[in-house]
Amino acid sequence: MATPVFHRRFLSELPGDPDSAPVSREVRNALWSRVQPTPVAKPELLAFSRPLARQLGLEEWLAGGDAARVLGGNALLPGMDPYAANYGGHQFGHWAGQLGDGRAIVLGELETPAGTCVELQLKGAGPTAYSRTADGRAVLRSSIREFLCSEAMHALGVPTTRALSLVRTGDGVVRDMFYDGHPQREPGAIVCRTAPTFLRFGSYQLPASRGETDVLRALVEFTLRHWFPQFVDQGKDGLAAWLREVAERTARLVAHWQAIGFVHGVLNTDNMSILGLTIDYGPYGWIDDFDLDWTPNTTDAQQRRYAFGKQPAVGLWNLARLGEALLPLCDGDERVIEDAVRAYQTTYGDEATRRFGDKLGIRFASERRDDQLLQDLFDWLAAEETDMTIFFRALCDAVTLHAAPTTMPPACAEAFYGSPPQSHVDAGVAWLRRWWQRTRDEPQTATDLRTTMRASNPHFVLRNWLTQRAIDAAHQDDLRPLERLLQVMQRPFDDQPEHQELAGRRPEWARHKPGCSALSCSS
Questions:
Q1: Is the overall model pTM greater than 0.85, yes or no?
Q2: Contact (CB, 8 A) for 137 and 188
């Protein structure tokens, strides 16, 4: 295997912190602080993503004996120069000031066989200058969730950071899972996650909030140079065009989340990627029964700021905060923000319409009142507990029926949690008849529509109860459920009949079980 090559663009091109001590502090006029991962007792490689390892040219290395030491923070490869990034953010709508990588350490920027660069970042590798009162560590349960979800989202086609590996550290980590005064010692773990960059909205907000305009300008120029070269050296017009591009990427991302029923759980501005990627997997979840007001985050249980149905509006709010941070470089011209807001709204509307049209097998047309057809479906799904993923997948076969249904197809009825009243079932059948008749107006055959719909309606999603079973087993040193989930979720649109039970409704025992129904930010 060729020796991996690492670059130092972030360190060499942007202002940094002269102090490398992993001691919590305010770091000003700097975007990074060097820090060494803290060694662990017994690093053990539990799992890795073979497709990603192959893409990065690391598959052979991961099969060797040194990978666990490096990915567990006990050793470095030549060229690695670890650091933690400095950024701020709005958390639950309130400015939180400096945040930064409190338990994430970038090892370096790996040059891939394709000639691109990706950051390798260890999450849970020890304290940094930004750890505040935390220990910089992560527990096995949250690490398994991030590892599995990163790869599951990628397989679904959702823009996302990736997860290369999962390492058990051999150390215990004390966490109060629900912040209720009952801390427990849990097994520690480290995930190596990758992305072209982990820059987030809060990266730009922090220097702007401090009046560090030169630092902000350097960061923006760095960002454009490496990921948005079409906007380099275009002054305010280029910055405005770049912000519109970020708005459009963010809008497309959120529309994709809504179409698959994914809820991020913590859409703070420090958890919003400048590249439009899903970033920072904490208390996320997929909605089981269709509920626009559902959130998997116990911290948000009262406010529900980040509930499923609110994600599009939150994405827009966060974008406006990024626009405000860029105003010092745009002569204070707020039209830059207004243009970006309009771009977000237009793009989200178009993208959501296209995605739900694909899920229903129709091309939306206002004159056919297709928007009303979709709204009526949402209203019906929400009226009784009905599984979104199962119902939409069932439509893929219902579209090939030779006549409009007169009863509820069994596959659609499988989506019900419990036994809805007959009036509700009858209303669903009436909607199905309208929808089926509408699909007959499409130029494709029913078979072709089924193919299109199956590519937009996954059979498998990473439901919290599935992940919790894998976590429980891993705590007993049984990695088979973890390995199985990883393999199944890499083919979410395939039937995989041998794994059919992983595509079923949430079992009743999981309705209120911790880790299955709601999670905290504890990791």
A1: yes
A2: yes
Write out pLDDT tens, residues 103-119: 999 999 999 999 999 99
Query: Which residues make beta-bridge pairs with 48?
Result: 165
Residue 522 has pLDDT above 70, yes or no: no
Q: Are strands 44-48 and 104-111 parallel, antiparallel or unpaired?
A: unpaired
In 3-state terms, what secondary structure has residue 108?
A: strand
Query: Which stretch of DSSP H or E encloses residue 442?
Result: none
CA distances from 335 to 159, 230, 331, 338, 342 (A): 28, 21, 11, 5, 10
Residue of 199, 188, 187, 171 lying closest to 14 (CA atoms) = 199
Closest to 465 measured CA to CA, from 416, 409, 514, 394: 514
Contact call for residues 12 and 217 (beta carbons, < 8 A): no
With cut-offs at 50, 70 and 90, classify the pLDDT of residue 462: very high
Q: Which percentage of the chain shows pLDDT scores above 90?
A: 92
Active site members? 270
Secondary structure (H, E, C), 345-397: HHHHHHHHHHHHHHHHCCCCCHHHCHHHHHHHHHHHHHHCCEEHHHHHHHHHH
